[in-house]
TrEMBL record:
<dbReference type="Pfam" id="PF00595">
    <property type="entry name" value="PDZ"/>
</dbReference>
<protein>
    <submittedName>
        <fullName>Uncharacterized protein</fullName>
    </submittedName>
</protein>
<feature type="domain" description="PDZ">
    <location>
        <begin position="55"/>
        <end position="133"/>
    </location>
</feature>
<feature type="domain" description="PH">
    <location>
        <begin position="278"/>
        <end position="383"/>
    </location>
</feature>
<dbReference type="InterPro" id="IPR001478">
    <property type="entry name" value="PDZ"/>
</dbReference>
<feature type="domain" description="PH">
    <location>
        <begin position="151"/>
        <end position="253"/>
    </location>
</feature>
<dbReference type="InterPro" id="IPR001849">
    <property type="entry name" value="PH_domain"/>
</dbReference>
<dbReference type="InterPro" id="IPR036034">
    <property type="entry name" value="PDZ_sf"/>
</dbReference>
<dbReference type="InterPro" id="IPR011993">
    <property type="entry name" value="PH-like_dom_sf"/>
</dbReference>
<dbReference type="Pfam" id="PF00169">
    <property type="entry name" value="PH"/>
</dbReference>
Amino acid sequence: MVCDSAGSEYPTDFVENVSLKHSLEELLKCMLRVWCREGQALTKLGVPEPESDKTVIVKREAGGEFGFRIHGSKPVVVSAIEPDTPAESSGLEVGDIIMSVNGRSVMDATHSEVVRLAHSGPDVLELEVARTCNVLAPRVSRGGPKENVEVTLCADYLWRRATTLNSSGVTTEKWVRRWFALRRDNCLYYYKTDTDSQPVGAVMLLKYDVELTPELKAHSFVISKHGAPSHYLAADNDEAALRWTTAIREAVERNNQADTWLDASLKMQQIPACAIQRPDCSGYLSKQQHRARKTSSPTGWSRRYCVLKDAALYFYDDANAEKAFGVACLHGFRVHGSAPSSGGRKHAFELQPPDPTQRSYTFATESEMDKKRWLAALEYSIDRWIKVG
């Protein structure tokens, strides 16, 4: 079998230096590219097309939004899904490779061509997608044997008030049912269902107030603080509402005494990469040194093993290192698919801070597919976290 090698020019010592795990990841990515192209090849040969991983139907209201974002081109990858939108309820997932839109193949389409095709058509999108989340970054069940790191303090279905904008430009409010989990890190995570392993949102319970709001809905309460969006939730009965408000108040009090997110980040620096549970992404990245970035030099890059978890990027000397030598807190950062200061380095991208006085980061991957995987994971990890403070 011959694999499409576009965007996969590895250094001569690549195979000798990488771990077995990373080698297998690269092989899986190569197999995925071959599989995605298989349908096109069989079509030209007159063979019936094989089925994709999944066909997703996304239906928007007239004049509304589909509710998902894509990144890259040839092919495009789903990089973010907005909560309480048609995309969220359709089954579309972050990391999905979009193979076709309404029966038209987009494997060789650019980002702008896919966007134009989606918006110029009807209000219903039929998407054929190839899943990457379970192939390149297998998920760990929330009930797995190593979940003691993320002990759940309180978990149950709650109603969450969501605000939507209709075709007439009028905002409407509705209550949607979501699975909520308050963990030992004093963060409140919410999922579409209790079987999902990837949360659609998370709230760091720092300096929040909790108040009952019976005038809005029975057994409802609000989590609010100055300068941040308020979160309106409702339980099914008074007992559940009391249990949740008590647990959230206790979590807020613990966070007010110490910033747990930063504390957890420092603690995770002291453990091996393989011990970080359910990372958003992991693998080798080449990181441009600060001095080289100023001069746009093609040299001055160091190859590091990186683990992304909850908008924090941990740096290791290699995949077997006992602890991280550094961590970058990426709350509020923006992800850019190009890197003008990379000195022409292939597959480079930048992370820009919200404050220009903060440090920016420039990275490069070994292949275009790996770059798309990191860009999608970074956007998802950063976007689903509300900025602390």
